[in-house]
Amino acid sequence: MATRTNDPLVSFNFKVEIEGITVGDFAEVTGLGSTIESIDYREGGENTTVRKLPGKTTYSDIVLKRGTTKGDNTLYDWHREVVSGVVTLRSGSIIVTDRQGTEVLRYNFINAWPKEFKPADYNATASSVATESVTFAHEGLEIG
Predict the structure, then answer these.
(1) 51 in a domain, yes or no?
(2) Residue with the larger pLDDT of the pair 129 and 94
(3) What CATH number did the domain enclosing 101 receive?
């Protein structure tokens, strides 16, 4: 029986690297995308059709969510540097792996900085994992 080479990827096998260093186990990554502005253009003498031209490209913010852990403040410390006026741009990757842990897809983001850090909400009546999130602004996304 032949094996299928184009099976869909599972969405729960991924890791996050920034500047080549794995920065933690995340439960969720959202915001991998870009949008190109559409500019309407009317040509002289062409009264029935409006041309659509590509304009500027914008990139969605990337949001990483993970369970809060004791002792790993790497992303929070970077966010605090930005708050204090020291903006260090870093590039990184969201790496999708197969069930065996082999890399199958990589999203590279360019010139990122943490624009928002949200500690977990705590509730004495809940039994869920305390989840924190960090939001990155960035200047580009490539699939590699």
Answers:
(1) yes
(2) 94
(3) 2.30.110
91, part of any domain: yes
CB 110 within 8 A of CB 139: yes
Contacts of 138 (CB under 8 A, 6+ apart): 59, 61, 62, 109, 110, 111, 112, 113
Domain region containing 41 = 14-143
Cβ burial of 41 (10 Å; 0-12, 13-18, 19+) is: exposed
What six digits make up the tokens of 35?
A: 């949008």
**Residue 25 predicted with pLDDT over 80:** no
- 30-34, 43-47, 52-56, 90-94: the lowest-pLDDT one: 43-47
pTM for this prediction: 0.81
Kindly state whether residue 2 falls inside one of the protein's structural domains. Answer: no
pLDDT at 136 over 80: yes
CB 59 within 8 A of CB 112: no
Q: What's the structural domain count of the chain?
A: 1
Tokens describing residue 102: 């082999």
And the tokens for 107?
């999203």
31 neighbors 57 (Cβ within 8 angstroms):
no
pLDDT of residue 121: 86
